[in-house]
Backbone:
């Protein structure tokens, strides 16, 4: 059995060593990118009929005298032809006629319409008007601002008189610093047209005025007289000009402050136009009139 099994074995030779692989004859490369052909620029052909024409200011190419644009670069030929030398109409020069160089494509400004030009003129007129108004009114505005924030100080008039007075109640009682004394014209009803006038020897700037209506500042005394309602203040300044202020008073007790803000005042007349609670048994009465001007402390602040 062993001999029979040995006879079935087939001898196999040892495997030979593998031969080394040969290097490729062509090295691998990445795929190439195709190159576009270069454009060929053709030079302009010679044109014998324009040899004697004026040169283009942009590319120096000669052109025919009757041309307005260059035959090569299509730019305008400045100073050529009859149309370029003729002056533009006056209305075209007035409303936007332009003589500057034509801008390149892409650099041109947006088109200006008729309404844009009208808007420009309107804007210019508004700016000029505001400048003139500012030049005229700014000084007054600055002075009004100073008056608004200025400290107040009492100012006493140098004299006072009235159109008429009730016996024992002359106009000097209006500036005696007492609220239980009063002035009255001595006529019943509203006393329309009656006046009191305060004078200042030196021109004075007045900022505020306080008027105390009635015979006293106490509320229980209001029914004893008519109370001034509307008063016309006529102000005379140092240059002789007059200004007016309408003063409207409430039907109440105590002093009532009203803005004045007038400079260089030499005289103020208060004329009664109407009154509260006027009747045939009462006369209009004013207990006190006080004036206030800028304090000297304002110049030190």
Residues:
């Amino acid at each position: 059995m062993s001999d029979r099994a040995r006879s079935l074995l087939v001898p196999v030779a040892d495997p030979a060593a593998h031969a080394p692989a040969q290097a490729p004859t062509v090295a691998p490369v990445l795929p190439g990118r195709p190159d576009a052909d270069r454009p060929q620029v053709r030079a302009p052909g010679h044109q014998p009929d324009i040899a004697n024409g004026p040169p283009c200011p942009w590319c120096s190419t000669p052109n025919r005298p009757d041309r307005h644009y260059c035959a090569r670069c299509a730019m305008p030929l400045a100073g050529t032809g009859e149309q370029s030398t003729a002056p533009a109409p006056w209305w075209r020069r007035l409303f936007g006629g332009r003589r500057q160089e034509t801008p390149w494509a892409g650099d041109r400004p947006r088109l200006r319409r008729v309404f844009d030009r009208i808007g420009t003129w309107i804007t210019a007129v508004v700016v000029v008007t505001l400048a003139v108004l500012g030049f005229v009114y700014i000084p007054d505005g600055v002075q009004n601002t100073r008056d608004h924030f200025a400290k107040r100080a009492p100012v006493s008039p140098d004299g006072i008189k009235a159109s008429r007075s009730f016996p024992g109640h002359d106009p000097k009682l209006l500036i005696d610093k007492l609220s239980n004394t009063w002035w009255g014209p001595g006529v019943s009803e509203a006393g329309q047209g009656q006046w009191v006038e305060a004078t200042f020897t030196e021109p004075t700037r007045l900022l505020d005025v306080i008027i105390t209506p009635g015979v006293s500042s106490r509320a229980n005394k209001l029914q004893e007289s008519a109370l001034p309602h509307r008063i016309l203040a006529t102000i005379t300044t140092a240059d002789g000009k007059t200004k007016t202020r309408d003063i409207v008073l409430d039907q109440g007790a105590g002093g009532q402050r009203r803005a004045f803000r007038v400079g260089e005042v030499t005289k103020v007349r208060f004329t009664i136009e109407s009154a509260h609670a006027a009747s045939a048994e009462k006369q209009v009465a004013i207990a006190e009139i006080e004036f206030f001007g800028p304090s000297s402390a304002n110049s030190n602040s």
Notes: The helical segments are 2-8, 81-85, 90-94, 114-149. The beta strands are 152-155, 159-162, 195-213, 227-237, 242-248, 256-276, 286-294. Residues 118 and 124 are 10 Å apart (CA to CA). The radius of gyration is 52 Å.
